[in-house]
Amino acid sequence: MENEFKQIASLIGDPTRATIMWTLLDGKAFTATELAIVADTSAQNISMHLTKLIQAGLLSVESQGRHKYYKFSRKEIAYAIEAMASLLPQSTDKHDLHKASNSAIRQCRTCYDHLAGKVGVAITDGLLHQKIIVDNDNVLEVSLKGQKWFSELGIDIEELKKKRRSFLRPCLDWSERRHHIAGSLATALLDKMLLADWIRRTKNSRAIIVTSKGQKEFYKYFKLDLE
């Protein structure tokens, strides 16, 4: 296991491959050409790096017409990459701290398929405070009150539990250094917010914008004041 861990760490530690993994946190599949542009490298070089990541089981590739699209082989890899960012040292410069705290990506973003950042953590706090979800020794569960709450929101918990993936789990937020929720329930909640226009995606970024409607709904459902 130690040797396998060293191999994975070495793969991710390469600057080009680290850029690939970070880019894929957007939650979309990318072509080799798109990844080469982001990593500022040649098509031949990006192909070599992608092959190594696929062979290690970190990425998967899907062909569609003339194009091949690359993505994480499973969602847990995305969560691990996001959590690794929490190892970054916190800046001690007050100007940097102020600038970082106001950046869009730290305020609200997608963490692959769920909501993260300051808003994502605050939503999780709101759900815990209202006992919609409960924390049993870092194991998150939906309470009886929560089952009714999600049902009224139009989210079918029983259907989500049937999916072949984690239903509800804590995910370490790299910018807040605290947990937000992940899993199929968090994905369903993100989809609900996007569909209802509480939040909107931004072009070429993981940053998420909370709409004026969303500000009202966030207060109504999560007791979260974003104004």
From TrEMBL:
What GO biological process term is on the record, naming one?
response to lead ion
Q: Which SMART domains match?
A: HTH_ARSR
Under InterPro entries, the record lists: ArsR-like_HTH, HTH_ArsR_DNA-bd_dom, HTH_Metal-responsive_Reg, WH-like_DNA-bd_sf, WH_DNA-bd_sf
**Domain HTH arsR-type intervals:** 1-92
**One MF term in GO for this entry?**
DNA-binding transcription factor activity
Any matching Pfam family: HTH_20
Gene3D superfamilies, sorted: Winged helix-like DNA-binding domain superfamily/Winged helix DNA-binding domain
**Record-given protein name:** Helix-turn-helix transcriptional regulator
Naturally occurring in which organism (per UniProt): Flavobacterium soyangense
